[in-house]
Amino acid sequence: MYPKSQKRGFSVLFALLTMLSLLFSKEATCQESADYEEIIVSFSVPRIGGADVSALVKDETLYLCINDVFNFLKIKYNTDSGFNSFSGFFITEEATYNIDRTKNQILYLKKEFTLKEGDMIRTETGLYLKSNYFGEIFGLDCIFNFRALSVTLNTKIELPIIREMRQEQMRKSINQIKGVVEADTLIKRKYPILNF
Fold it and tell me: pTM for the whole thing?
């Protein structure tokens, strides 16, 4: 145990250090809040269906996650680990594209589209592109309903997902014509319920 005078000295020293740290400390700042809000929107395509897609809303402007949209539409892409660039082909192998966030540009069908600062936003989970560019560049018109938090995609392009659905329907039709029946399989029990 410490004597009373030594305890008093510790408390005075502690109070003095606390006051000095308050006087000479810099203004405390917290992490800056992002000027956008991360949400999930219902993304639907007529005659295909829908899925939930990550999105950002900034001043009632919608940014869609490129990876989520391309995955749903089954558009092939390659990306780097930091989500700074996407490349691949759009529907046909001749229609190559390259989305580059560092240069703020999109190359598609050998045309260069220069974007404004802030038209692409990178987060930890992906790269987000302003929704109007999906229509202007790729022909994927995205109609955003702010109240319902839903996006309806209209396009005249035959998307890979539509092609796959059509091929699956043709396979089913051919199997019906040939008389191929896809039966469920039952696994029979090896032992009776009551075994004495």
Answer: 0.67
